[in-house]
Write a structure and sequence with these properties.
Blueprint (H helix, E strand, L loop, with lengths): L1 H44 L6 H25 L2 H18 L5 H29 L2 H32 L4 H4 L1 H15 L13 H20 L9 H23 L13 H30 L5 H25 L5 H19 L8 H25 L6 H42 L22 H4 L4 H21 L1 H11 L10 H9 L1
Helix pairs in contact: 1-4, 1-5, 1-7, 1-10, 1-11, 2-4, 2-8, 2-14, 3-4, 3-7, 4-14, 5-11, 5-13, 8-9, 8-14, 10-11, 10-13, 10-14, 10-16, 10-17, 11-13, 12-13, 12-17, 14-16
């Protein structure tokens, strides 16, 4: 590690860090831009019942690539796979800008996700390799702040581009950012490390991805496209169960498993990974459904969505920076318990949304939620990796990122299912049985995505529009209510992290010597 740090400094550590931060910013800003623009995209391309796959496709592809790239970076070096991630992400971005249907966009987002699966975990690992323990907290806090800043700039930039140019440019904007990051890495980063050839666990990776995809398709299609007791859904669930069991057996016998179960014997790592899963599952609902609420219920524009999300982003930036500083003064568990409590409170407050909720109250609730989630961006990144040496850091960090992405993927699918079910129930409740419907219209024939297009809203009678808005409000608030469950689970998970705190350089040397 000392050799890597020395070589990095000679090549220009500052420029290397700038390249890594820019790469992370590019990957994370894409999600926030899409979250703001999704209502406009759906209004243009249609497919309201499929829009969650625009996010799910990215997350599933990222999920597939993360553990593989983490293992490969341990074997062959970080640099080449970070470059690969940049190139794939830019290619996917260009293709997304050319999409003409939700299906096409989802496929292209999957290509982006492959690149994202390499970018984020490898960037974190490079920083961890380069800096001594005393500086890792601040650096990881800086990385967490980049996630937060992307959330601040992304919604505003996405809203501006969507409203004054085209939603397609929210993807094209990634290209110049990627080129700059790529040039900086090519010019300044020259890693020197002892590589150890290992056998890639392709069977384990394939089984894991197959199990996750089977589960997500079953949850997405069940109760909507197909009945829950249909042969297709039952078959998908059976496929998930078989592949999951096969994956466990394969990993126990693999020489170099894609996910090493012995890693989870470390209490700090296990707690960090579990917390990452639940944080991801709950937080994704906020970024996905607040823009839908703002544009569909309050009649706001894409710009309004971006401005509404700003306080949440500011809160997460502040918390990420605080977390990076506090890890050198407090135990990981103490910091994260505070974080999880605040996060749970924020989700509870959001579950009380109504169509009449004042803007100041909504942004306050979002700021609290963002402050709660922000600590996880920096603190869990340190706690999940510090117990491993250089040869295992890539795998450990990729496992952490993998599980967080898994949580987001499952969260998108499950809470998408919950929101649609609640929306249907709310619509039926508004209609009543055998009652006359407002405006003499059949509300069951109204596509709720009409609320996401100002032009379509103008053709719907005010009485009908109000009924649909109330139904959409109830479904969004109810979804946030269900999201309290993973937030509470995150609180339980962090309580098992033990009393460990960030190690010093001396402590790390002693650990390495054992």
């Amino acid at each position: 590690m000392a050799e890597i740090a020395a070589n990095s400094k000679k090549a220009g550590t500052g420029w290397i860090v700038a390249a890594l931060l820019l790469g992370i910013f590019m990957a994370s800003i894409d999600n926030t831009i899409v979250a703001t623009a999704i209502a406009t995209i759906v209004g243009d391309l249609g497919g309201f019942d499929q829009f969650v796959w625009v996010t799910s496709a990215y997350l599933v592809a990222s999920l597939a690539g993360t553990p593989i790239f983490g293992k490969l970076s341990d074997m062959y070096g970080r640099r080449r796979f970070f470059i690969f991630g940049l190139i794939m992400f830019m290619i996917g971005s260009i293709l997304c800008g050319t999409a003409h249907s939700i299906v096409e966009l989802s496929i292209y987002r999957a290509i982006q996700g492959i690149g994202g699966g390499a970018l984020v975990p490898i960037a974190f690992t490079i920083v961890f390799d380069t800096f001594p323990p005393e500086k890792r907290g601040r650096m990881t806090g800086l990385l967490g702040a980049v996630f937060g800043m992307s959330g601040l700039v992304g919604p505003l930039l996405g809203a501006y581009i969507t409203e004054y140019f085209s939603w397609r440019w929210v993807f094209y904007i990634n290209v110049p950012l990627g080129i700059i990051s790529l040039l900086l890495i090519l010019i300044f980063y020259r890693e020197s490390l002892e590589r150890s050839r290992q056998k890639i666990d392709w069977a384990g990776a394939g089984l894991l991805v197959g199990a996750v995809v089977s589960l997500m398709f079953a949850l997405e299609l069940g109760g909507g496209t197909y009945a829950w007791d249909s042969g297709i859904i039952i078959g998908l669930l059976c496929c998930f169960a078989v592949l999951a069991v096969a994956f466990i057996f394969a990993e126990r016998r693999a020489a170099e498993p894609i996910i090493s179960f012995p890693m989870f014997r470390k209490q700090l790592f296990a707690g960090s990974v579990a917390a990452s899963f639940f944080y991801g599952a709950a937080f994704i609902t906020v970024t996905l459904y607040i823009p839908i609420y703002v544009q569909g219920v309050t009649g706001g524009t894409a710009v309004n969505s971006g401005l509404t999300l700003m306080p949440m982003t500011i809160g997460s930036v502040i918390a990420a920076m605080m977390g990076g500083i506090l890890v050198n003064k407090m135990t990981f568990r103490r910091i994260m318990i505070f974080s999880a409590v605040v996060f749970t409170v924020g989700m509870f407050l959001l579950s009380r949304l109504t169509s009449d909720t004042p803007t100041w109250l909504l942004v306050t609730d979002l700021a609290i939620t963002g402050f709660g989630i922000g600590f996880s961006f920096s603190v869990l990144g340190i706690s999940g990796i510090q117990e491993f040496d250089f040869r295992q850091r890539g795998a450990a960090n990729s496992t952490l990122s993998f599980v967080r992405s898994l949580g987001m993927s499952v969260g998108v699918t499950i809470f998408g299912l919950v929101q649609r079910s609640l929306l249907t129930g709310e619509m039926e409740g508004q209609l009543g049985s055998g009652q006359a419907q407002p405006g003499g219209m059949d509300l069951s024939a109204i596509d709720p995505r009409a609320l996401l297009s100002e032009e379509m809203q103008s053709h719907i009678p005010a009485a009908v529009l109000e009924v649909i808005r109330q139904a959409l409000t109830g479904s969004v608030a109810g979804t946030f209510g269900w999201a309290i469950i993973p937030a509470v689970c995150a609180l339980i998970a962090v309580s098992f992290m033990g009393n460990a705190r960030a190690v010093s350089s001396r402590g790390e040397q002693n650990t390495a010597g054992r």
